[in-house]
Amino acid sequence: MVTISSLDDPRIAEYRFLPERTGRLFPGERTIVESEVVAQRLLRYPWSKGIVESALLVPPVAERLAPLLQARGVSPERIYVAPKSLLEQVVGYHLHQGVFLCIRVPPHVPIEQHPLPAVMLVGVSSSTNVGAIARSCAGLGFRSLICDRATASPWLRRCIRVSMGAIFALATYHATDETDLLLERLRERGGRLVGVEVGAPIEYDAFEWSRNDILIFGSEGTGLDAEFLERLDAAVRIPMSAAVESLNVAAAAAIVLAECSRRCGLFAERRQ
Length: 272
Prior knowledge:
The protein has 272 residues and is α/β, with parallel strands linked by helices. It has nine helices and twelve strands. The strands form two sheets. The chain has a seven-stranded parallel sheet.
């Protein structure tokens, strides 16, 4: 392992004053994994070998993570160790832990290989919401997260952090095509397209859910508009009191995913 003693050390340039990126990340681009728990979750997966470029760690954590990192192909020369006070200067904010991995975004899983049921996000621009939905997906037995090109990348640093590493358990796809083309490809995959939107004709707990369903959630501001809903196979709503017009998209997703998971037996499948 390499001890870092200077803020200006070029070997840790990718960690310096970490910005919160937004929007899209392409496969092969760099992103950051934070916290020991999330780092350990990543390193459980054999596919993490080759995508972890380096680590920047406080000394106690370095001793614990070094064997896992080396098992995933990270050489000791790429495991950087520094005191917490220096790490805070490097990244530009107060730290609770002092654990950072620099990784490359893995390749997308082709649409044809995504297991169903799946979740699709349309225009969900908040990385916090994408991360929270990813966590609900993994926790409720879904294994696929599909994002249209207007949705924040599920591999953004904040998405990974908010998901608590749940994104690592999911097949992910971030489209570059028009959303209409993406919908057609999902239909060809055998999926039934089910939108979730205020004012839809069927309440979510009265719907006949299927393991071929693709649950679609719209943007934080406008949701799924009427024209978009016409292109889907079905649409459901969450019954609401008159006190509010709608729920946050991440909260709505958790409610509907839990019902679909219960009806399709995904909970039992995940416990085995």
